[in-house]
Design goal:
- The structure is a single chain.
- The protein has 144 residues and is α+β, with helices and mostly antiparallel strands.
- The protein has 2 domains: 3-68; 82-143, no CATH class.
- Helix content is 23%, strand content 22%.
- A 3-stranded antiparallel beta sheet has the order 2-1-6, with no helix packed on it. A 3-stranded antiparallel beta sheet has the order 3-4-5, covered by helices on one side.
């Protein structure tokens, strides 16, 4: 696909799966940071977060449902803000998109779990359980 077509279909900041070397290598989930440009021999390239060089658009798969909200192969400091969970527990779900698991916190906020280390997931589970226990204890004290 040429650069103009890519740019019409996928705006800057579109979540993408990229294959920096070959499609046989493990992909990375990130997002575009520039518009695609046409270079030598009709090749279209685009820059993505976390990778210095431009990538051939043939090695980029835009993720479905682009408004998923910041799927990135970057530290969690990208958001750098407080996030309140929805008050509707049914809105919190575990989703899978293209083989990647996401914890959907409601309000279109997601955590890419399959891109995290096992240690980070274990810590998240431990702290979430601790927070739930603390909240339950506080509510019981209020009732008592």
């Amino acid at each position: 696909m040429d650069a103009d077509t890519f740019n019409r279909m996928y705006p800057v900041r579109t979540p993408v799966r990229v294959f920096p070397n070959t499609r046989q290598d493990p992909p990375r989930i990130t997002r575009t940071r520039t518009r695609a440009v046409q270079v030598q021999h009709g090749l279209a390239v685009v820059h993505v977060d976390g990778i210095r060089c431009g990538l051939d658009t043939r090695y980029i798969d835009p993720l479905p449902d682009p408004p998923r909200g910041g799927v990135m192969d970057q530290p969690t400091t990208v958001l750098n803000q407080t996030i309140a969970l929805t008050s509707n527990p049914d809105a919190i779900a575990l989703d899978e998109v293209d083989g990647h698991q996401f914890l959907d916190l409601g309000n279109r906020i997601q955590i890419a779990l399959s891109l995290s280390s096992q240690d980070a997931l274990d810590k998240l589970a431990t702290l979430t359980a601790q927070a739930a226990a603390n909240q339950r204890a506080r509510l019981l004290r209020e009732v008592a």
